[in-house]
Amino acid sequence: KPTGEFKARFRLFPLKNMVTGRKERTPWTVVAQGTRITYEQASLVDQLTKVSDHPDELKVFLQSSAQPSIEGLFALFQHLNGADDLIELIHILQSVLVVHPVCIINHIRKSPDLVAPLLKSLSVNDPTLELQDYAAIIIGKLLNQMLKEAASFESEATVSIIDTQTDQFFAWINSTLLDPDIPELHCVHVLQALGEILRTDRARWRFCQVSKSVMTVARLVDEELHHQVQALYQAVFVLWLLSFANEGKTADAVSLAMDEASVPRRLSLLLREVTAEKVVRVCVSTLSNLVRPRFSPRLRREMVGAGIIRTVEQLCVRKWADTDILNDML
User: Is the pTM of this model over 0.85?
Assistant: First the structure.
């Protein structure tokens, strides 16, 4: 499953590594002037900013000032709309999420509507699309954490807000990936954001309820659409995450969506053409998951009809650096 070592091997583009050439910025106490943010809140975020790139110092700071500084951080998200400011705030939020995720989740648990400004940032005009890339990935991380803990939330209203935000995020992803002119690097980052959230059955089921969502991802598996192997790999990676659906309605929903999108056939045909080992690895692993009894037998029949047996025989004679490929084919 997408945890532990296997999860780490498939990790792409850590958000903090996407931020390059960051310059000295105007203090938040100055940026926040003329807004409803207090000087004390902005000052705390200034202090948070100074330690955000230093995990040990950040831990110490959060031990004493987690709640008020996180409140200030989200207050800035609500009242600022400049792309550069929002990107910087997302970078800080990412650092806190890595070092002390509990303080973020507890804050959102009390006010789940705080994710709304992040969702709104997806529509901010930024010709470079950097803001959309950063925002999508951090939203995926946050919603994933919230969906994992949804069962422990006492308020049904809170769970309803989280589900609604998840649906809005999936709808944005679907419409973005449907754009025929989407830049390939932006496509990679949007798919990565989708990969961040599809770690629970609750998320997988809701994604399958968005009209043609799996079809949208599946068509990206067609190799001729890509100039970079990374986009192809990331599309298959999303399908791989879906293939971990458990028994019941989620597995049924994934089966139906995979069948309608001809995923077994697409992946079987892709294996004949692709040479990149990392794509072969995740492709074979996805097909191996889909033959399990919890999924529809139609998926298995579709693989056979696409010639998967002969393809596997041909692949078995190749030398692979990753033994998991051979194990999955067997």
Answer: yes
